Amino acid sequence: MEFIPNLKKKYLDQIIPNLRGNYKSIMQVPRLEKICLNQGVGSGSSDKKLIESAQNEMTMITGQKALLTRSKKDISNFKLRKGMPVGVMVTLRGDRMYEFLERFITSTLPRVRDFKGLDPKGGFDGRGNYTMGIKEQIAFPEISIDKVHKITGMDITFVTNTDIDDEALLLLEEFGLPFKQKRTDQEAPAEEAPAEEAPAEEAPA
């Protein structure tokens, strides 16, 4: 029997029927196309060990070989030459994408320090794609803090096939990404009325 990732099965069995009513055809229901992870190494671009460490960590996190990203031009202020490695990246599709997303929701996000939910306003690009940042790679359970050479962050982009941010938000919420709830005017705390000043006492004649 062919293995089907849990979130892929959830998309087919639950998410499509839940969102189907908003569209004329089932083929119009938004879907997750890919997940892109990018990590820069900053000043460590000239440190070969740091580059290798970042590449190995990204490979462990995603289960897919991480690629080096290289500088496209010389930047003298940063002592950077064209072709030098400046970071690592991975693009996940298919079953690996769904497996990573499940681990990310159930294991990684609960380990993020002071996590209070994803911001539904700041992360969307206006074309149905959502980008968020992780400040410390040690939030991923695959990374052992004892073997980390340097604490670094990364950007994670969820790419959908819709160009409408609200549709992408509904899709990602159905997958289980914990977005902050938008506060309505009714939910906003009522402002306290200013206290009335007591009348001043008249001085005795």
Question: Which key features would you list for this structure?
Answer:
205 residues, alpha+beta
Notes on the protein architecture:
The protein has 205 residues and is an alpha+beta fold. It has four helices and five strands, in the order H-E-H-E-E-H-E-E-H. The protein has a five-stranded antiparallel beta sheet.
Largest sheet descriptor: 5 strands, antiparallel
Q: Could you state the order of secondary-structure elements as H and E?
A: HEHEEHEEH
Shape: globular
Contiguous helical run count: 4
Fraction in beta strands: 15-25%
Taking pLDDT < 50 over at least 5 consecutive residues as the criterion, the unreliable ranges are 183-190
Strand order of the largest sheet: 2-3-1-5-4
**What is the straight-line distance between the termini?**
101 Å
Helical content class: 25-40%
> What is Rg?
24 Å
> Which structural class best describes the helix and strand composition?
alpha+beta
**How confident is the prediction overall: mean pLDDT?**
82
In total, how many beta strands? 5
